[in-house]
Amino acid sequence: MFSAPPEALLKQWESEQDRLRLQLIQEDSEDWQSRTHFSGLERVAGVDLSYIKGDHVHACAQLAVLSYPELQVLYEDSQMVALTAPYIAGFLAFRETPFLLDALKRLEKNRPDLVPQVVFVDGNGLFHYREFGLACHLGVLSGLPCVGVAKNLLQVQGVRKSEEHQAQVSGPFT
């Protein structure tokens, strides 16, 4: 079990997010991104760290690469890992990025022909308290375009999760 990190560590992590944010590319950088139907996109990946209920020390880091548009599995990597940082809201990247980055590096070493053109990340990207979540962190460090696909919305255009926000997202969609 992890104890609460000292305030100095949180300040260090905030500083690291600020430093890495300067390297973030927010516009299309690949030809396929601006083509109709993403023509030229051939490989997509998804990454996640899955936690074992009741175990605060171990998790499973997972990477899957699929063909696009067929979505056939081309590559899978799952590794049990020992967590090195506690979960702290707004700092998920410091808990998960090292393991997800390792999975991408193993892929690049073992099957460089299958390196994805985009990675979908189970976590926020720009919709984050400091506009630099796990997806942004992984994208900057890996050099790959990453998209955050989070289960929980942290922030959108300055709107934080609140009763008003809940009413907006649970209302009828047009």
From TrEMBL:
One annotated Gene Ontology cellular component of this protein: cytoplasm
Superkingdom of origin organism: Eukaryota
GO biological process, one term: DNA repair
UniProt-listed InterPro entries: Endonuclease-V (IPR007581)
Keywords: Cytoplasm, Endonuclease, Hydrolase, Nuclease
A Pfam family matched in the record: Endonuclease_5
Keyword Nuclease among UniProt keywords: yes
UniProt GO molecular function: RNA endonuclease activity producing 5'-phosphomonoesters, hydrolytic mechanism; single-stranded RNA binding
Subcellular location(s) of the protein: Cytoplasm
Protein name in UniProt: Endonuclease V
Organism whose genome encodes this protein: Takifugu flavidus (sansaifugu)
Classification lineage: Eukaryota, Metazoa, Chordata, Craniata, Vertebrata
